[in-house]
Amino acid sequence: MPVRTACPAFALVVALAMAASPSFAVTLIHNAHIHTVNKKQPQASAMAFDADGKILAVGDESLIKRFPDAERIDFAGKTIVPGLIDAHVHLMGLGIARAQVDLVGSESKEEILRRLQSFESTLEEDEWLTGRGWDQNDWVVREFPNAADLDDLFPNRPVWLDRIDGHAAWANTAAMKKSTVDVTIAVDPQGGRIMRDEQGRPTGIFLDAAKVFIDKGVPALSEETLDRALHVAVREANSAGLTGVHEAGTSLYAVHRYRRAIDAGELSLRIYAMADGMQDTFAALCRDGPFEYKNRLSMRSVKLYMDGALGSRGAALLADYSDDPGNRGLLFTQPDVFAEYVADVMRCGLQVNTHAIGDNGIRVVLDAYEKGIAATGGGPGRHRIEHAQIIALEDIPRFGELNVIASMQPTHATSDMYWAEDRLGPERIQGAYAWRKLLDTGARLAFGSDFPVEGVAPLLGFYASVARQDLKNWPEGGWYPGERLTREEALKAFTLDAAYAAFQERQIGSLEVGKRADFVVLSADIMSVPAEEIPATRVLSTWLDGKRVYAAD
Asked: Smallest Cα–Cα separation from 97: which of 151, 163, 49, 194?
């Protein structure tokens, strides 16, 4: 017999408790406010799906008569949207970050030192003290710290702290002594810089490619630790309403770890993995071709890097930084070499996804894509620029002309807006975080967070997209409000267009017949509540393939 809930007050609780029941061939959810992201049927109140999680019907309450023997779940008028997809994450990085010192939100070096001292008490005598999340732009004095700031408290224990964007790191003297090279005389690598004082001595700040000098000295994490990190990251992603992520740079070791988790039934997330550059993972993918594993892991793209980040002044600009004359950032790869990489990836029939933040870096990537498409046919197409933060105005139409997807992170704009114009000046800022300009000139947007650089919650990205304000509703009216998106556009960028960016739009991204029953139940209707109420919206439950993988307390 079908399940019938008589009291709306506890209907949702009863429904969630029964959601995993295997005794019904069809599940019918109803009395819901469903935003389908299907332009042919944008709204619905009921949906039916089979035991494998395939959607059978989307419609109104009349579906109750169509499926009389279904398990029936009354959602008591709650809002449902398709499973949210983060188009740019570092999944393992999130799990690992949760096992380190959390420096996010620290407002001074003194606060960082207090957090480090507290965390050190949990370490063994010979362990490194590692952490992530500091941002000198949030301090009263917006200057990079140095090794001396750490040495007094930690004269013998190596300390290695990643900046929030992962494109700079801060070492103490003990950590520099563990370096694989003598950093006092080392030459800056292509795409990296060891910051030095007036006497030429390393200050303790390593930018981009120079980080490898210290990274290689950090002891490797155990397999147990890495497995636990994956579990923690997946659980946090599900709790935020995520049913899918695009992993921006994946090694063969990570691929094997994901496969093991899938086989064990422990990966409640769809991962679209990008090979980590022109290395072993790319070679294997080029040799064996794209693959999908048990409807949880797929791979058909390569992640390349072109420049650094704006916050650490490593993003490659066409002109000097406004607040640092003589500095134009860092190109990780020479343009002619990069163009060869792009052509090689396209010839292998793979998607190219390149990190590029500055206007010079983005232009080099667009030029290489255009050249590669002309020479090879472009492989599968749908090539992407990851971040695409600072674009020369004349280059914005090229995204649409070349069918290049702008894979962007809305909360980067609201994190950077306090100082971004200082870096760029009033003219270049017009092409910064330019979602509306890109969309209006024919580009497709795929939105994400870049976690753990930003927070995991996609609803905060949705809020940033439509408000361009921080959580205190600053600035009034929004930061460069002309770049705001409509709520429909923002939701599509976190669902259907994110799925498109991974060649998955026929399986996920909207709630329609034949697709997977991936959806999220919310405490409020983000499509209609006042914008300032969006950040307070809670994820009540997250469903993957028609099965509940997360429920709020």
From this structure: 163
Contact status, residue 388 vs residue 404, Cβ threshold 8 Å: no
> What range defines the domain where residue 78 resides?
1-82+510-553
Strand 79-82 with 33-35, pairing: parallel
Among 180, 215, 250, which residue terminates a domain? Answer: 215
Same domain, 118 and 205: yes
Q: What is the pLDDT of residue 18?
A: 42
pLDDT reported for residue 64: 96
- Averaged pLDDT score across all residues of the chain: 94
Q: Are residues 136 and 175 in the same domain?
A: yes
> Which pLDDT does position 336 carry in this prediction?
97
Judge whether residue 493 has pLDDT over 70. Answer: yes
pLDDT in tens, 18-42: 444 446 899 999 999 999 999 999 9
Q: Would the CA dihedral through 152, 153, 159, 163 be positive or negative?
A: negative
Q: Residue 9's pLDDT band (boundaries 50, 70, 90)?
A: very low
Tokens 């969006």 sit at which residue?
534
Both tokens assigned to 434: 């330019």
Q: Is residue 188 part of a domain?
A: yes
C-alpha span between 70 and 23 (Å, rounded)? 10
CA distance linking residue 502 with residue 271, whole number of Å? 10
Could you tell me if 483 and 437 are in contact, meaning their C-beta atoms sit under 8 angstroms apart? yes
Cis peptide bond prior to 452, omega within 30° of 0: yes
Q: Do 151 and 66 fall into the same domain?
A: no
Residue 442 domain flag: no
CA–CA distances in Å: residue 37 to residues 77, 82, 174: 18, 7, 53
- Note whether 71 and 106 are same-domain residues: no
Cβ neighbour number for residue 400 with a 10 Å cutoff: 16
Same-domain pairing of 72 and 134: no
Tell me the C-alpha to C-alpha distance, in Å, between residue 283 and each of 142, 296, 298: 42, 22, 16
CA distance 290 to 481: 40
**From CA 509, how far away is CA 487, in angstroms rounded?**
16
Inside any domain, residue 135: yes
Examine residue 90 and state whether it is found in any structural domain, yes or no. no
**Together in a domain, 195 and 162:** yes
User: Whose CA is closest to 547, among 265, 230, 228?
Assistant: 265
Q: Say which amino acid occupies 2.
A: P
Angle at the Cα of 304 (from 253 to 245), degrees rounded to 5? 60
| Cα 463–Cα 465–Cα 466 angle in degrees, nearest 5 | 70
DSSP string, 159-224: EEEEETTSSEEEE-HHHHHTSSS-TTTPPPPTTEEEEE-TTS-EEEEEEEGGGHHHHTTSPPPPHH
Could you tell me the CATH number of the domain that includes residue 178? 3.10.310.70
Domain end, chosen from 184, 200, 215, is at 215
Residue 197, CA distances (Å) to 42, 188, 200, 202 in order:
59, 14, 5, 7
pLDDT digits (tens, 9 = 90+) for 411-456: 999 999 999 999 999 999 999 999 999 999 999 999 999 999 999 9
Residues 6+ apart with CB under 8 A from 238: 268, 269, 542, 544, 549, 550
Type of residue numbered 295: N
